[in-house]
Amino acid sequence: MSHLTNRKLQEHIIQSGKHFGLKYHSNNKRIKNPNNIKSDEFVNLLDSMGYKNIDIIPPKTPGKNSSSVYNAYEFNDGNKNRSIILADDRAGRGTNQTTKQELSFLLLLSSFQFNSNESTLLMNTKKEQVHKKVYDGNKFLSEKEVNKLIEFLTQDNGWYESIVDQVKSISSRLTNNPLYYVKDYKNFKLNTIAKDLFYKEIDGIEWNSDKWNPSDVWLIYEENIPRFSDLSDLNLYLYKSIINNNGIVGLSHKKGNGKIEEVNFTETKLNISSFKLRFGRFFTQNLYTVYDGENLTGTSITYRIFNANPNEIIRGESEQKKSDAAHGKVYVNYLNYLDSNNSVIDNLKLVSGKDTFELIDNRWILSNKGIERFKVVQESYKNIKSSNIVEKMSNDFDVLLDINEFVNVVNDYMKLNNELGKFDLDKKISARFQSIILGSYFCELDDNKLFHTSENMLLYARSMTSWSSPHLKLQ
Asked: The whole model's pTM is what?
């Protein structure tokens, strides 16, 4: 395949993916994805066009993907390696749906606390003394942005009514009016302070601001904040800010009727009575950790690959049946903090990635790297087989006890699903191998350590760890 300029490459992909609704981006190294097609669909498109060695590069990968939000797709065009970013159809700051909802809440809160007359609530948002107190990141709202939010609120009556209920509720709880109303952003001053304190105290895990404080918006009552000696000191400041209605108050904002929940005001303990492992079908990727106990029925964490990238380390997402609560992410490197002597992260890295299999003479065989990975997974599976915390695991997994049987099953599967290619196989095997490694880790723990670890993984998902900060959850 001949080399194309970036613009011609962009055009070639858009024309070939016309049925997906792909569109031109002003940056010729990007493609707009207004219909939000999935990563594996885009990879299959590139594969069908004859491009090889397709690799998904996650956001913020130094030297390979400058985007902070979207995946890049690296591939070979026959002459050289190329890269394209698949971006959604956002048109700049303030247009994202969640951003609109959060800024609309702050705008109406500012308006209500300026004048609580509901009949003038929208009209007053246009007053400078109202909208210039509302900040999207580090910039206050312009009249143009205010008009867009008014349009959103008048077109979506459900959100308008929800926000009005919430505005009344929080104004009854916090009767002082703040100096500013700020939508959370990466470099918000408390996020940067907390990050510095975090790395001074905690080893083994990466900083994630949502796990410290998942507030979507902040109410600023004072501009000059004190110095903090450690995270506990900072968290105490946030607690006192809520109690005394001063300082800085964080709010987690979801659609609702104005219910306010206090989060991390006291140490949280979960009354877990049962913890079980459940695996999906062999060629799916999921590992479910299923909880039971007081207020925990139907609670689980699902571990899998989320970006359709075989090089990705699996992560978890918590959920509770019959609940609309937002799912909390669980990064498995948190195990390094809970259990510094574990080797599970190293083993996950060892068995993850592409090139476990190679295609020779129309048959998939294990590469040398694949054989090494299989042997590690085989030993882990033996631990799972003898464990009493595993339920609903198909006998199909027994192919992991015999390397030849495993290879035969993989070939049968790929013949039956002949639309799948090497990338799909890499992804499935990487995810399944990793789920076995993680499942084996849980199976090896004694009861006390198992309940301690499983409890803390769920608390981490809910941003309720021992170092997470007090905030108000507004629903």
From this structure: 0.75
